[in-house]
Amino acid sequence: MQLIPLSKLDQSEDNVCKRPNSEFEERLSFDIEARGVLQNLIVAKAKKRGRFEVIGGGKRMRAMHRIVERGAMDADFEIPCLVIDRREHNASEVSLAENFQRLQMTPAEECQAFQHFIKEDGDTAAVAKRFGLTQRFVDGRLRLANLAGPIFEALAASDITLDIAKAYAATDQHEVQLRVFEQMRHAWNPSADAIRRMIADGSLRGNDPIALLVGEDTYVAAGGKIERDLFSEAADDRWIDVEIAHQLAGAKMEAEAERVAAETGLAWINPVAATNSWSARSELGLNPVRLPPAPLSEEARTRIDEIDARMDDINAIFEDESAQEEDGVDLDKLEVEYDTLSNERDDLNNPVRELPEEWHGEAGRFLILTNKGEMVLESDYYSEKRLSFEQDEDGNITATSEDMPTSGSTGSSAARPSTPEAVAPGGEKPISAKLFDELSVQRRNILAASLLGDPGLALDYAIFALCDDRSYESKGTSLKAGKPQDPAYGDIPQSAAEGILAQAEDALNKTWHEPKEVAQRFLAFRELDDETKAAWLSYVVAVSLEAKKGYNSEYHPIHAVLGSILDVDVAAMWRPTSENLFDRINKTSCLAALIDIGGSELAARYAASKKAELSKTCEKLFSGDAIVEEDIKERALAWLPEAMKFDFAQDPGGEDDTPVEPDDDTDLADANGEPTFEEPEDVDEEAAVDA
């Protein structure tokens, strides 16, 4: 250890921490001025006689130079230094070991330093051991060091965070990294998850149900390739050859579907390589079969009576303090027994509903996957016909069927289906005009917020809207007339989209607004760089979007095209709540939404609830705050009413006048807890929807 004057110290080229951090060094200088140098520097003799190069402690040296500049320290102030011999020590390794755990070392510098040692050593395991790190950590930093040039430069300049860089490094293909990087350059506050989703487009995750069903060995044996993500668990590995995985999964599920169809005698078993059958049954136009309530057997009734008697005995003990003091009374054990009996009683009171044997040839079920990749049958039955069952006082069941009308059928307007997006969950009842108008504004804002991230699409849309003058019909945008006139005002429920739009506006470069003359403002705008102009273009087009088409409860089909191209994740920005949906539709529609995510069993749990309680329950379920089965929670978090979807394949429908669904609190449930789906007698006071 030697005391060396500050004036004789220089920065070493072997110091791996090369980027100055002015803010940190300023704070550090005041700390050294107050407390002195608490830790020695590591130096080596320089080629120039009498001078030394700082290998470890460059920021402390620069902080002391700041003190000298302030006049609070003499330039020849002596600093305690550990002098090492370059012939005996690797200067860069010493610098890395001295700097690695420090806040001021950037991820880019870590990457370059590890890359340096790997070139010398060639063994990531040995380098990891030397620095007390995991090999996966070192491999991850090396993956970052091999990022495409523009992305690594952005990391080194702190233009992107370490998490964002890791998201780009989920693949080692530079062309994929650069494609996504270019797409996300103008996105407002891009997230690592969003980047990973774009990187993974066209691949499967290692924990995808299809991947779990097929198995890695089978997939690889068939020629499939796997790309490992070094920054995540094995579940985040990417299966690149999606077609191979789907072919293997399809063959396996089709074989199982044939076996189950023969075993059950149903008309069909439709295999779907997904965790739900929503899309499949929608495309096929199938109707859910509402099964009749199953009668209680004599054995079940007897067992329920026994359970009730035992539960009464346990309750009596809980209420009688003297009984609790008797020897051998274990209250914890009694509580467990009580809960077990209660669950058994619920199961007995809700026997499995079976499809009558004579209707097996008219109905079928979907074979789907669990999150663990297991093949299971969905509990609900579906049919091309509308099957309904009625039960008389003696328990006799009468079944009726009704063929679905074709698109070419004639009849009254009441028999024709209304516009899909203007229909409440669970059937063809229209929602109120006021609710549709509010949902249309919220849906438009979500599309607008998503359009911010794709200025190329915004430009294409803008040019089309300006140039297409073949007719006077709406183009779905108000580019020719500024911001649109929204159909709903006041305290409309808000979503994340409104905040994104507001932040985007605040971030715009408005310096070109300063000139008073329009010509000068135009010239000032032309001086902006392309990135700034692109941000303005995206914002102006985004806020021009109209909420709906004309005066009817109908969306513009161009918006569905835009939403499909953008792959808008509506569920990530908007969730149904009591305020924005469930208080505004009747109880039957709320129960129908529950059937969509959990089948008849889930709806039956809450069928006896009052409308206000059911609305709050639905809000918790669809926000993911309720304690339910994992697969139901997953479907709930993705569920959307038709009025909030961007479905390009969806036919907007005609313009028939249909009755309006009431915003009422009518309790529509029969004695068995099932929704009756009958038309309510009272009518909403709001205007009817043109569907």
UniProtKB/TrEMBL annotation:
Fetch the Pfam families from UniProt. HTH_ParB, ParB_N
| InterPro entries linked to this entry | Chromosome_partition/occlusion, HTH_ParB/Spo0J, ParB/Sulfiredoxin_sf, ParB_N
Annotated Polar residues bias? 397-416
Amino acid composition bias (Acidic residues), ranges on this chain: 653-668, 676-691
Please indicate which superkingdom the organism of origin belongs to: Bacteria
Q: Which residues form a coiled coil?
A: none
| The protein's name in its UniProt record | ParB family chromosome partitioning protein
Which species is the source of this protein? Novosphingobium marinum
